Amino acid sequence: MKQFLKLKGTVLPIDERQPTKGLMTTQIKVKNLLKIYLIDSEVNRDININRIPKIEKYIDTFESNLGIYFPAIMCNIQLKEFNYDEENSALTIYPNEKLVIIDGQHRITGLERYLSTMKESDIRKVKILDSMLTLQLYINLDKAEQRELFTSINSNAKKVSMSLTTSYDSRDILNILAKDILSISESLQSLGVETNKSRLARPKNKNLTSMTRLKTFLSLLLFGKPTLSNSNEQLIKENYDSVLNFLERLFYNLYSDLNSNSIFPREPGNVKKYVLGHEAVLNALAIYLNRKIVVAQNDGFLFHHDLDDFLETLTLIDWSVEDSSWKPFLQVAQRGQSTEFKTIDLKFQDAIAEYLTDVLS
């Protein structure tokens, strides 16, 4: 049978006693979702038509500087055959397999109604259809479990999510988080993450960071320290969806081809031009952001209520290696060679965090 599409992401077990059931966080193009979604009246309640005009009005702002942001669409798929490529973290979906919507039917209906008013040749319609939505995809839930999940989502202010599954997963939660945010964030992909090697050979390698460094960045960002305690790991597991959504929004603000207010320059991992490719600088940024926009509590995380506006303050920083502010931290590497560049030792990360605090206060 001809495959329809492949979804990239890590599949997590819902319950180790039921190996055919799982959950993955991924991204899907709007046009693909609209082709294979299904609203099941046995799972969902009726559409509230009064909510749709507000959603259409919001979608109409997608070309603004801030763009638009939809929370993850939550759905279930019944798979007779589990065609998952573990090496490439890719799940194959076939045309006859439908995504049954559990949460997000109003957003999808709003999208369909908005798009129906546009001509096929309208470039704005093409852009929307080719844009990505975050998808939380449950695998092989039965009808009763789908109804229970729908009820839980709509009866609690705090949405049920991947936290239902990560508590069953014994793997390194930071490793899972790093892989998932990389798989769904086009911004992070554009910034560049080295996945094949743990060491970044500068200046040739222009990726912003590596998977190993990304894990440290996430730990510093969420908790202000480079390694996690068992209780820290559990807090991430219990609040996985909110953490993932926060990270996606953060990286979108830091860099996006669609965001004219991006904080990072193009090719920020080019250490001959910018300081951002040095681990000390990224770690310092994570430490600073942890102090300003993240509060880890016993029952969850508090993220800055106006994240987009706050992050705009980072545009005050000149990330160029030629800026005199970086001179105290820079030292020459590979001196006298054609590959000579200026580097920053990891020991300066705390001092740089203080520098960022002073400049941005």
UniProtKB/TrEMBL annotation:
Protein origin, superkingdom: Bacteria
Native source organism of the sequence: Paenibacillus larvae
Lineage: Bacteria, Bacillati, Bacillota, Bacilli, Bacillales
Protein name: DNA sulfur modification protein DndB
